[in-house]
Design goal:
The protein is mainly α and 362 residues long. The chain has 14 helices and no strands. It is elongated. 32% of the residues are buried.
Length: 362
């Protein structure tokens, strides 16, 4: 019963160009090139747990001590007193507005209830050192992966002429270095998706979750359909700006304000240049305009391109937040708040960075 469903899902008319079968691009010793193996899309999952373990070791023995040497505190807010009734209300509605009605219902003073909720929300926040270690880990990976990706693609013809992502498709062979680049990148995004549920809880939690899932689906679809060439370009482009995103946060938590401001300026240039410039006007323009000129279209290609456009939509949202921060930065004289997302805070709105919220209250 399962086989007909799988056969229907992996219909060649959906996933492959006209007059192409799965057998045509199946790996084998008799093939002229080394094709991608669809079973390898599962390899990054166990590798993701290796990344999670490596991150734990680095945060405990390298990033943590380094952060403390910079004077970053690992202190946590004072805990609220045990109160089963208020705890039950908090779990149901963490940001309750009707404090007066709740205080009367529980026969407590309104001030007592407000103070308890404030302390209870604060105790869920991670320490500054925890956030610093998380950003340093991501920055380390993005630097290493961008460097490795640039090394891998330097001698590849499609890095210099994107048309080669489509010329000769689907008979594109995959080299060992590209294989490792794909597996490592996929494993990291799997690790982020898994660890996101216990990492620092940020306001754009679901935006980032959608971003990670869309990226994983893009990697899987492009691998199965042998579209790995365009996939490597998207990976390289994204890692470049993410280095600055994490570096700015780490510098801010370490209280290196001048370094933070400099990195933030670099972030604006890199982010806008890659995510709002090169990505839509070179990558997506190529996949949407040039690709149909060079190869016959098929259903899976439209799925692939839709996911690329979904990433662009997220880029636009984050760019707007970053530009808001840039505007406040120019007025305040230094970078305040967080980049692209903020930790959950009692005084924050669901979608506005801390410093912007505070500025509006002045």
């Amino acid at each position: 019963m399962l086989k007909p469903l799988l056969d229907g899902f992996w219909n060649e008319h959906v996933w492959l160009p006209p007059n192409t079968t799965w057998e045509d691009i199946a790996p084998g010793p008799d093939k002229a090139v080394k094709y991608t193996d669809h079973t390898h899309i599962w390899y990054p999952i166990p590798l993701a747990f290796v990344f999670i373990a490596l991150r734990y070791v680095l945060e405990k023995h390298v990033y943590g001590p380094f952060g403390k040497s910079l004077g970053i505190k690992d202190t946590r807010p004072k805990k609220a007193q045990d109160n089963p009734k208020l705890e039950a209300v908090y779990k149901a509605t963490p940001r309750i507005k009707q404090m007066t009605a709740l205080a009367k219902q529980l026969d407590m003073s309104e001030r007592h209830v407000e103070r308890w909720f404030r302390l209870r929300r604060s105790q869920d926040k991670p320490s500054t050192l925890t956030k610093f270690c998380e950003n340093l880990w991501k920055m380390t990976f993005y630097i290493c992966n961008f460097t490795f990706g640039f090394y891998v693609l330097w001698d590849k013809e499609w890095l210099w002429n994107i048309d080669h992502c489509y010329i000769g498709y689907p008979h594109h062979g995959v080299t060992n270095d590209v294989w490792w680049y794909y597996m490592i990148s996929s494993a990291f995004y799997w690790s982020l998706t898994i660890s996101q549920f216990w990492d620092v809880r940020r306001k754009d939690f679901w935006q980032m979750f959608v971003h990670h899932i869309a990226t994983i689906l893009l990697l899987c679809f492009s691998w199965v359909c042998n579209l790995h060439r365009i996939g490597t370009l998207v990976l390289l482009l994204h890692d470049c700006a993410d280095i600055f995103v994490e570096a700015v946060k780490a510098a801010k938590y370490a209280n290196y304000q001048k370094l933070c401001d400099t990195l933030f300026f670099g972030l604006i240039i890199t982010w806008v240049g890659t995510r709002i410039g090169i990505y839509p006007f070179y990558i997506i323009w190529s996949t949407s305009i040039r690709a149909p000129m060079l190869l016959p279209m098929f259903a899976a290609y439209y799925i692939f391109n839709t996911l690329l456009c979904l990433l662009l939509a997220l880029h636009v949202v984050w760019t707007w937040l970053i530009l808001q921060i840039a505007y406040i930065t120019i007025k305040a004289g230094q970078m305040e708040g967080d980049i692209r997302s903020s930790s959950s805070d009692a005084s924050d709105s669901p979608h506005t960075p801390n410093h912007i919220q505070n500025h509006k209250k002045k």
